Amino acid sequence: MTAVGEQRQATRGEASRYLQRRDGSVAQSREQEDLSQLRLLTHAQTPGGLWFKWCSALETFFSTEPAGLHVRNAVVTGASSGIGRELAKLLCKKGFRVLGVGRDVKALEGLKSEVDGFEFIACDLSDLGCVSEISSGVAASYSPLDLLVNNAGYGSAKKLIEMTAEEVVNMTLVNFIAPVVLTRELLPYMRSGSTVVNVVTAGVHILMTQAPLYGATKIALHYASGALRRELKERGVHLVEVFPGVVRTKFHERAGMRAPMRGVPPEQAARIILGAVEKKKGRVYIPWYVGFLRLLGPHLPALY
Questions:
Q1: In the prediction, which pLDDT does 5 show?
Q2: DSSP states of 8-63
Q3: Cβ–Cβ < 8 Å for 107, 81
Q4: Per mean pLDDT, which range of 158-162, 209-213, 248-252 is the poorest?
Q5: pLDDT score of 49 more than 70
Q6: What pLDDT, on the 0 to 100 scale, is given for residue 259?
Q7: 144 preceded by cis ω (within 30°)?
Q8: Given a cut of 50, is residue 55 above it in pLDDT?
Q9: HSE of 41, CA atoms in CB hemisphere, 13 A
Q10: Is the pLDDT of residue 141 over 70?
Q11: What is the residue extent of each domain of the chain?
Q12: Partner residues linked to 148 by β-bridges
């Protein structure tokens, strides 16, 4: 055998001995690992082991953020009183960060001191500069936006021929134009899965002789909501249309209107709206039975 052959044979021998040692070490390591696992399993069945597992589970639960958890942001207009105030309060209690919009600074400050997570912008939606202010506020601190509630609105018992041009323009701005423009302005800050809520009125299905301009502006918003629902769906944004009947707020008193019934508490209305948002409903009537106006309305031209 040549020197080269002897060297190759020696190398093979060393390699063989190395592999044997390695395999033996691996086998021993695996055996030790199996024994360790067996000891752990045995220990886990003892009272001390069960206590250890329970404490570890609690530590993991409280120290780990649940998958998909994020801070939810909402904008609620008309947050000074009534449905808007109660909905803003309810959302804050549900963990939302809420940017409320209204005109009554004192009422908004009171709500801010009452719940955590509430901030506000005091402005009048009859001035479209208010929309720009809201948009800037969302861009700065409330993006991405999960929920927009177009709730602000007001009425008047005046006849159409008695209203001034300014009154007609202002009510149309607040009840119809502002919700549409605000939705458009805030849409870039919404993500797929966000929701827009438009508070209309069950009166869109009947002739509201007590408040003709209010009814007309809400019919316009109702019509726009149908179009917006289709347009927003393309971006993954859901739209809920709310049709309140009579709610126990100061709406009728301020409008100089007569309420036909006592109505539901605003707290209940807020819970119903939030439920509709969570269940991704397309429309909701408050209370439920005013939904019959969709069928009866054409036959009751001057019910209200």
A1: 52
A2: HHHHHHHHHHHHHHHHHHHHHHHHHHHHHHHHHHHHHTSHHHHHHHHHHHHHHHHH
A3: yes
A4: 248-252
A5: no
A6: 56
A7: yes
A8: no
A9: 6
A10: yes
A11: 3-63, 72-299
A12: 75, 196
Task: With beta carbons less than 8 A apart as the criterion, state whether 225 and 241 touch.
Answer: yes
Work out the percent of the chain whose per-residue pLDDT is above 90: 59
- State both tokens at 283: 């429309």
Q: What is the mean pLDDT of residues 51-68?
A: 40
Strand-by-strand arrangement of the 96-102 sheet: 118-122, 96-102, 72-77, 145-150, 190-199, 238-244, 283-286
The answer to whether 147 touches 240, Cβ cutoff 8 Å, is no
The C-alpha angle 187, 175, 213, rounded to 5 degrees, equals: 150
Q: How many CA atoms lie within 13 A of 180 on its CB side?
A: 17
Tokens 């007609």, residue located: 168
Question: Would you say residue 252 has pLDDT above 90?
Answer: no
Output the pLDDT for position 18. Answer: 47
- 72-299 CATH pick, 3.40.50.720, 3.50.30.60, 3.40.50.1970, 3.30.470.30: 3.40.50.720
What is the average pLDDT value for the chain, to the nearest integer?
Answer: 81
Q: If 0-12 CB within 10 Å is exposed, 13-18 middle and 19+ buried, where does residue 5 land? A: exposed
Q: What is the DSSP string of 150-166?
A: E---------GGGS-HH
Q: What is the pLDDT of residue 69?
A: 43
Tokens of 267: 């707290």
Contact between residue 120 and residue 78 where contact means Cβ atoms under 8 Å apart: no
